[in-house]
Amino acid sequence: MTRVIHTGDTHIGYRQYHSAERRADFLSAFEQVAANAVSDEIDAVVHAGDLFHDRRPDLEDLLGTLDVLRDLDDAGVPFLAIVGNHEGTRKGQWLDLFSRMGLATRLGSEGTVIGDTTFYGLDHVPVSRREDLEYDFTPPETEHTALVAHGLFEPFGYADWDTEELLERASVEFDALLLGDNHHPDRAEVKDTWVTYCGSTERASAAEREDRSYNLVEFNGDVRISRRGLETREFVFVDLDLAEGEGTERAFERVGQHDLDGHVVIVRIDGEGEPVTPAEVESYARERGALVARVSDSREIENASEFDVSFSDPDAAVRERLGEMGLSRAASDIDETVRTSKIADSNLRAAIEERVRALIDEEPAAFESVEPAKSGSISEGSEAAEGRSETPANRPESRNGTEVSEAESAERGTGRGETTAGTENQSSMEEYS
Fold it and tell me: Is the N end or the C end of the chain the one with fewer CB atoms within 10 Å?
């Protein structure tokens, strides 16, 4: 029998909401996964891509990651991984460095044997280059096989990768596909092969309302997949439907019903009530201990001149305007590099030139313009554009996407109402039904 932890989309280094505390949360979640692997005597940790949030992680994030990998190595737990879209570069990969240090194994077509299972790897590949994939893998000498890959695969939502075609063309018959990129945990059976997403280990967007977790996968004659919860910072979600005559005071009342201390507070306003200034509600939540507060009002404003203008999140306003412009994915990627990267100004031109050359070589379709987003569709939950997006135009619930799609995803997962998200019991097990 082979027992592995299947995790991914850890996005270490993500300074969500520009918060140092949230940045630390992403590393903490990865530390929990590793600690559980050691304490439960797991055979290996399998990471399905996007270990880092950025192609150029800070030294602090690199050192923290190395500490985790050393802990696994000291306990004799192998770390097997592939490269996702967020961390991938044209030249050397951070995963290769960890491999040279003896702290990780980069999975590929030759396969790595753990117990009675051979694990293969498929890094993230742009859509424009997938026709060239041969899916040729070294024949296994073990009873079980698994492919670890990063992308949006069928039959799950927003898919752009044909899973059946992969399975038909692959030179190896896989018992399981262990996937990353989609932050929503799920599984399905395709052509007698289990296909599963582990989900992200921390909430990279307010659309990710479900408790965070990872997969525990057992290969023992058949394949058994279960989920294990993680203790992450609580998000308080307040979905407020204002009745006629209700406004800011009602918002204060509803938000104040919750314990906000150290939590991330997400308020979404709808209904026929009075205008609400988001900055006032955000300030109210922070005064009561919230680490971060974000308020979005989805109502149509007939006469904008009647209302106060809030500059509580200028980055969200910029992202909304960019979404309305219909920029190509390449242009959006360059904009993100200029506005949010940690590259020194003196090196920015060279970095942009390198990125453009990479897109020309690897994904020319990225230069095609996209349909502009409707006004207001991106600003809600705007942290999503920062978090999962290599480009903010078209990848919901995983790494790219407008908030419209993310909201749809959130509705599928939890429905509407007031909820407080967060796990209380790290050791609780939840099997898929």
Answer: C
Task: Give φ, ψ of 149 to 5 degrees.
Answer: -145, 160
Catalytic residues: 86
Residue-level pLDDT at 346: 54
Long-range contacts of 97-106 (CB under 8 A, 24+ apart): 98/65, 98/66, 98/69, 101/66, 102/73, 103/66, 103/69, 103/70, 103/72, 103/73, 103/79, 104/69, 104/79, 104/80, 105/78, 105/79, 105/80, 105/81, 106/81, 106/82
CB–CB of 231/40 below 8 Å?
Answer: no
How many residues are listed for the chain in this entry?
433
Say what the pLDDT of residue 374 is.
54
Tell me the pairing of strands 222-229 and 213-220. Answer: antiparallel
DSSP state letters, 277-302: -HHHHHHHHHHTT-SEEEEEE-S--S
70-88 pLDDT, tens digit per residue, is: 999 999 999 999 999 887 7
Question: Per the structure block, which two tokens stand in for 201?
Answer: 């280990």
The two tokens of residue 239 are 């979905």
